[in-house]
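User: Predict the full complex structure for these chains.
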Amino acid sequence: MRIKLIIIFLIGLSLISQAQNNPNNTPLLNGNNNQRNHLLIPNITGFITLTGDFHTHTVFSDGEVWPTVRVQEAWEEGIDIIAITDHIEYRPHKTYLQGDHNTSFDIAQIEAKKKNILLIKGSEITRGMPPGHLNALFINDANLLDKTDWKDALNEASQQNALLIWNHPGWRVQQPDSTKLFDIHKELIANKRISGIEVANYTEWYPIALDWCITNHLAVFANSDIHEPIQQVFDRSVTHRPMTLVFVRENSLDGVKEAITSARTIAWFDKQLAGPTDLLAKLVKASIKVGIPFYRTGNEETDVKYFEITNKSDFYFEFFNDSKTNGAPQKFSLQPRKSIIVKVFKNERTLKCTLTNIHTGMNQNLTIDLLKR
Amino acid sequence: MRIKLIIIFLIGLSLISQAQNNPNNTPLLNGNNNQRNHLLIPNITGFITLTGDFHTHTVFSDGEVWPTVRVQEAWEEGIDIIAITDHIEYRPHKTYLQGDHNTSFDIAQIEAKKKNILLIKGSEITRGMPPGHLNALFINDANLLDKTDWKDALNEASQQNALLIWNHPGWRVQQPDSTKLFDIHKELIANKRISGIEVANYTEWYPIALDWCITNHLAVFANSDIHEPIQQVFDRSVTHRPMTLVFVRENSLDGVKEAITSARTIAWFDKQLAGPTDLLAKLVKASIKVGIPFYRTGNEETDVKYFEITNKSDFYFEFFNDSKTNGAPQKFSLQPRKSIIVKVFKNERTLKCTLTNIHTGMNQNLTIDLLKR
Amino acid sequence: MRIKLIIIFLIGLSLISQAQNNPNNTPLLNGNNNQRNHLLIPNITGFITLTGDFHTHTVFSDGEVWPTVRVQEAWEEGIDIIAITDHIEYRPHKTYLQGDHNTSFDIAQIEAKKKNILLIKGSEITRGMPPGHLNALFINDANLLDKTDWKDALNEASQQNALLIWNHPGWRVQQPDSTKLFDIHKELIANKRISGIEVANYTEWYPIALDWCITNHLAVFANSDIHEPIQQVFDRSVTHRPMTLVFVRENSLDGVKEAITSARTIAWFDKQLAGPTDLLAKLVKASIKVGIPFYRTGNEETDVKYFEITNKSDFYFEFFNDSKTNGAPQKFSLQPRKSIIVKVFKNERTLKCTLTNIHTGMNQNLTIDLLKR
Amino acid sequence: MRIKLIIIFLIGLSLISQAQNNPNNTPLLNGNNNQRNHLLIPNITGFITLTGDFHTHTVFSDGEVWPTVRVQEAWEEGIDIIAITDHIEYRPHKTYLQGDHNTSFDIAQIEAKKKNILLIKGSEITRGMPPGHLNALFINDANLLDKTDWKDALNEASQQNALLIWNHPGWRVQQPDSTKLFDIHKELIANKRISGIEVANYTEWYPIALDWCITNHLAVFANSDIHEPIQQVFDRSVTHRPMTLVFVRENSLDGVKEAITSARTIAWFDKQLAGPTDLLAKLVKASIKVGIPFYRTGNEETDVKYFEITNKSDFYFEFFNDSKTNGAPQKFSLQPRKSIIVKVFKNERTLKCTLTNIHTGMNQNLTIDLLKR
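Assistant: Here is the predicted structure of the four-chain assembly.
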């Protein structure tokens, strides 16, 4: 059915909402369809926290969905920003598809307006290693990126004031034995041609790339690089797609671009967070609440005080207690929207923990003192 | 195992947290156990919103769990207040149990302190109809309620400054054909002997009791009356137990008592809310956020504007659009922590809706204008 | 990424299976992706039970996914047969897509072979009412159906030995006030030009169409008519898409065609089943197991016997007890892969129930005697 | 409510089934309560496969639930056999409870008959290490086990023809540094006084104990040792409690006793299975179905054949491909009730895999050739 009448279906409404005049047409109940997830991700002082996926594909390159689907999926998952980044050099469906490198963005843009999604015009410059694959974001005209020499493509991107992101630097196909920087990447970084690197892509992550970002003050990214319908890979009932948290001064495309240029991003993938220490510290502080002790035992020898830690966010936290003598357990975890009770000895003034799933470097994690206010 | 060593298990910590020195003892991963649900229930202006279950049973009457379990269950479910209300007159396990009418409270109290739960001392005065079953809450000594004449029991409760709640007024066993007020109830209400009535109990609700509460300015209650382990009846993966929302000036037992006396409660059961109009209006206002229109179509004949409604709470909302000509759908729903997009004609200034799952009376529902700020 | 290397990804394998030589490429755990659901649907005597969805769309008409996605989705959901049935007359994406009416089938076919899915070549003849929309299934060349007069299109389908199915007969857009047979449909049925009718489509069902099928010995169908990625409408964590159960003599396209021609199908949508009495009776018999009484109470007055009913299938059953005096409850239900215990008076020899969710006609339901063997 | 009228609630029926004469009593929909899980666990040649939990506690020792709850929980979870094994020496609730060591069994027995659960009379002989904790199963009179010297207790158990199981041999409290056999255990084993050992208990497992069982031909056990309401630790929506699979000749207590004595058991905990090679091989064979190749690619160099592996059971399987050159992936997994497609080179006749989650010894796993029939 549908035929031009799709316009009568009000987007975002439950399927049971349809009027029912025809007594022999019985609507059935359905699931949670067409409702947007309200992610619990706090703002941090001075900035609005937006969620983005800066790497997605459609049928116009080697993806499997129409461009509008990328917008619908993002809306349902609670994502604020997406980039359509079809490959410039690889378009296996082109036998069947006409349209140029701008077409997928143009189609998605109409849907993005109706869904209040920030849509970034992008393209994936898709070359052998080096330099590998790079996303050009905030471009004006993707067709002009279609060059024989990748350097010309990068120059064109710069001409358009685009930002360049190095994608999946540890992808086995291009880095079978190690995840390393080629001289070309060092040069691009040194010359400030690259604004960020994916530390997580699809279902994998590259710890060393986090060090590169921190050292060079580049934005970290976690992107889905999705080709399939999103739930075929990232089932919402058990996980979320990799996302990049962007800390913006204003909720707009310009705001997003400024934040990336300033490296104000955090990568969120599976249960992990990765990024600069200061941003992660602020995000954790805004996400969890540590209560004052509410109960003390009366036994002098083993006297302990109890306090509660509440996770108001959708993030997950794993704590490793850095002391063995404070009475608290060695390891504990805190799930999204849960709280736990922790006991420490009455006279403890500090409870220093390492957050083992929150990465500030390849071999470094955020630390926090749960008793310090 | 366990034997006295239970003290070494830190409450509220994930099971994976156990130290692991013994290489032939391998802990397994587990579910969401021992983490407290952080319910998304907003405060309203001037008041803190607490959640309570004012009707529970233990093995000391005809329940099936040790009193501490009621505290653990409440803590995990995110409930702030519970009352232990074992039957005075019905104690089928008494062959096996010694202890008086205060014992279940005394046992639970120790656990309540460790879990930061407000525990109310109560008892269920359990008689034929009339007067049926009444909970005496905030009592000092349950043993003194054990009287031959129920009037003496009620008098004793008053002596102890207890509050009386009429339980499950529509229970089929006592009201097989209709849910009605007996003269005795009218008299108790007229004399202000009853502070509240259960409009929902276990798996059923009694719409007419809502009218009685509203008319007589009594507190509404939704309570579990649970005898089994709570998840045997209310599986947390699909629902929640009936709860009473209490709007307190201070987070304490006194604060709760004052709120009930002032009838500042709302009943929350399954997907329904029931209570006084003003409280419900404030709760809904604090729970949902209506955005300004973010998109307008350009077609003059069918021009519409799009706006988003976000549900920041754990409540569920069903809207019935009171107009047929404003371009919005007749019915739509909004699930917990979701948002939807609604379209109306460009020139609409109002979008009056009836909230069909939010009850202000037996045949009355809350109304709201989604476009009025 | 992906680029031609997709071939290295072994289909159907968990994402954690990737070799891991590169130490800075860390795979993350994921959900249930890429595993096919093993539906619990029993065979019936003499026939293999297959599941089919005979109505799906792709980007080549007004759908939103590449044809291969329809095969992947069916595979994951546990469906054995699908038909690709893009509209002949409505191809809103044709500005961007080249390819004729056979293209979507040709693309899907390669994937179907790799997934062991029976793929039926089809097209949806898409006209105003009457005759409305009809699926031509088992066609050879869809291009020849592109005719000005719908009668010519139907004749061409017959030429190709295709089967014709009348789609969504109660669709409000074409049947705003009632679900009725137009003269044209009566004629098509009388002349045996139509092999079946959809009694369920997308999220609705048409009870009267079931009567038409039974009266005229036509195959009943429940089809998804899906345009979106399937999980956007039918989230696997809460429901399944409408499916048609086909009782075949052999597991092949010919077997499916023979079964449809012989009207050996049942429609399965949400929690409902609809179809001919004999097939439903056999299916229910193969799905549930009624145990012999395992316990009898000793009290002479109220003596009862207990027995267990086990649902070995993925179907859902709702029972209405036709007697009020046999001691069993008036209503009870049996969920997929669950069993229940039922009590009846000791001397009962029958327990006649109406299966209120199993439809043998518009106002008729299957009946069963749970105590008769 | 409830008061003696509990008898009117028919066990095992959905809550929506209650008759509804009182118009102001509105039942609400509920979850999956009161339906028994139909576990998909195949029989093996010559034996019926039963599921059991041989270690549970009630309020009569240090548990938190009334004995009937243990039966209800087992019924709902799909378990066939449970033992009530309250501690003889540790009864912290005895201030409040009267009743002897047989009371918890006597109370549970009534419920077990109504639920068709095999209930074993047991007790946990609870001593320091050595010998630690031992379950006496199939006893006649628990009171006679209450002896000062544990040897007398064990002798009394033998007098009653009970079977003795050594519980949680690696429990950190009693084995802080290693999991080892004390001389006393060696002697008990040598003298055939012990019939089995728990290789899994609560949330942990002890690989070395599997070797002890295999070497000495003792029955392996996985038991919950549950004290809490079961779902507080093992949430059915994400996991199952540890269970012991028992391969019986007849479905009766005698049948269970004979199977344990003959060491015909398998431990099932979380996603793991552990036990004797021959039983595991038969169980896996009965659980999965390997199809014949259904598709071959035509490309000569990389020619592969595709085949499907179907998991008909509720078990989980992890495969490690023992060859690196057969074209199949190195690792793959198969979830409960799912199937996967695997590719191997056309000329392969074997696909030897190690089942890494199926343990035949501390450092040994079951192997299987997926292509051998």
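Confidence is low (pLDDT under 50) at residues 4-20 of chain D.
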